Amino acid sequence: MSVERDWPLWEVFVRAKRGLSHQHVGSLHAPDPQMALRNARDVYTRRSEGVSIWVVPAAEIVASSPDEKDAFFDPAADKAYRHPTFYDIPAEVQHL
Amino acid sequence: MSHPTTSLAGAPFASGGLVSAHDSAGTPTSGPADRASLAVYALRLGDDALVLAQRLGEWVASAPQIEEDIALGNIGLDLLGQARTLLAYAGETEGAGRSEDDLAYVREERAFVNVQLVEQPNGDFAVSMARQLYFSTYQFALYERLQHSADATLGGVAEKAVKEVAYHRDHATQWVLRLGDGTDESHRRMQDGLARMWPFVAELFEADDLVRALATGGVAVDPSTLRAEWDAYVDAVLAEATLARPTSTWTARGGRRGIHSQPFGFLLAELQHLHRSHPGASW
Questions:
Q1: CA dist B281 to A87, B91, B105, B111, B274, Å?
Q2: Which CATH number fits the domain A9-82, given the four candidates 3.40.1280.10, 3.40.50.960, 3.40.50.720, 3.10.20.520?
Q3: What distance in Å separates residue A90's CA from the closest CA in chain B?
Q4: Interface touch B67/A29, C-beta < 8 Å
């Protein structure tokens, strides 16, 4: 009998350039953090997509449940006053 | 497009360039002989990269994980990029009208001047990682010095490639550490892989008159001067990985003179068959 030892799953976040924040780009398998970082480099930045990478064990991420969607998100839907839409953004401001 | 096979007639590489680097009294000559030597030297570096790229390509879709398929594919493509520049430069310097494709796809086995290490079959993953550790450590030391070559093209290739190879060496190092200091089975297989590739290490550092003459002129790097750095790095990795430095009773030789091991013919057949079946095919 072969013993199947699957590598743990890691979520990968890449920062495209200085000043921007890290964005989730996908996930991958790796045996440990250092190899996860290297795999992420190979899988997600081979076309110059990034200047910085974070890898996070997928098991460490606490996610909201689809079952809680109504309670979590619907109450915000009718509160337009929470959006900063009542003043003009200067044209020079980028990445907002 | 003319079929490039005709240009093979001269087959000026391998031993031809080696002899022409010196006159009969052994005095270095200048001009055409230097160009011929330079062409051979570029071809040696290019063939090493081309053949290892082909071997690494064999891992794609067969590696332990898809992530490793991509890692090895990337490393292979880095090497292929180096090979393209170096073969094109070899052809240009030779001045016989041969392109990078002519050199890659229609040369016969005996005209390839790569070291035998890079043509060795992949074996299991540990064998391939042993080959990667040995070769990338050598190539990193080589390119680090070749960056300062008196020849601007070689220097430029090395300057770009040294960053790629730093990653190749790191990749191999990470795996040798994990397999060596992993389970009983991974340790055994890593030790076996190191032993299987060990007889092919010495050839990396062999110098001949051609490379010594170019090194004296500041164009090439005498590979025998890289051994100490190579030993220091590999020994440190093996020690940390709880692996023993292998020994061997024999040493491979002759790749630079076109002498190759039996598996190389099969590799070449796979590498060349499309071009030979459909000369000039493109898409």
A1: 61, 20, 12, 23, 8
A2: 3.10.20.520
A3: 42
A4: yes
